[in-house]
Amino acid sequence: MAAIRSIASHPGAATVLKSANSTFLGDICPRLARSFTTPSNTNSAKTARLPFQIHPHKFHGRRAILVQTRRFSNSIARRKTISLTEPRLDDDGKEMLLEITPRAAQRLSEIMKVGNDPGFALRIKVQSGGCHGFQYLTTNDSVGELSTLEEDECVLRFVDDDATEIDKSLHGPKIVLDEASLMSLQGSKVDYIQELIGSRFEVTDNPLAENSCGCGSSFSLKL
């Protein structure tokens, strides 16, 4: 404590601390930074840009909830899901993907084998409705050739961790989405849930969803 008092009493300490605080606020919230800006860092505070949306109504005490928007990086696991069609890119130029979990991939493979349909695919579509504004629906589909797809449709395929090389054929666990649905679900996981009341494919961990209902299929999007 004595050391802190000694530093604080130094003639230049106030300027240093004030500049540091302004820089920190400039990195987090330019609007707040304007109230604490010194002449030396006024320009940097005004030009600071954030990958966050700050919602004033979500302040709790001294903490603010920062909602990150359109900043998604592909995790190592998500790279195991590849696009068999032309990659769709977001506004930052990054490929939009969903992660097919090993559990979902195993179930998709089982359905393909039982039905003797190597082209089997899980189709996922987002549409307006549900208790939160949007909902996704899953249906069984079959993709014999990529040429049979609509222009805005894409196919994502699971690649096993043990694979020595990436197989880009249609003969594997895969999902089909239209581009609008992909944009609403990018970064999500497609999982297979097993419960006493039944089993189902489910989209989880959607980074673009702000709220969701108990059923898991209805959600609202961050704006």
Describe the structure.
By secondary structure, this protein is an alpha+beta fold. It folds into 2 domains: 67 residues, no CATH class; 144 residues, HesB-like domain (Hypothetical Protein Aq_1857, Chain: A, Sandwich), CATH 2.60.300.12. Strand 1 and strand 2 form a beta hairpin. Belongs to the HesB/IscA family. It holds the Pfam family Fe-S_biosyn.
Q: How are the SSEs placed, and which strands pair?
A:
Blueprint: H1 2-8, H2 13-28, H3 30-33, H4 42-47, E1 52-60, E2 63-68, E3 81-83, E4 99-100, H5 102-114, E5 120-128, E6 134-142, E7 153-158, E8 174-178, H6 179-185, E9 189-195, E10 198-204, E11 209-212, E12 218-221
Parallel strand pairs: 4-9, 5-8
Antiparallel strand pairs: 1-2, 3-7, 5-6, 6-12, 7-8, 9-10, 11-12
The whole-number mean of residue pLDDT values reads 73
CATH C-level class of the largest domain: Mainly Beta
Query: Based on helices, strands and strand pairing, what is the structural class?
Result: alpha+beta
DSSP strand (E) fraction?
25-35%
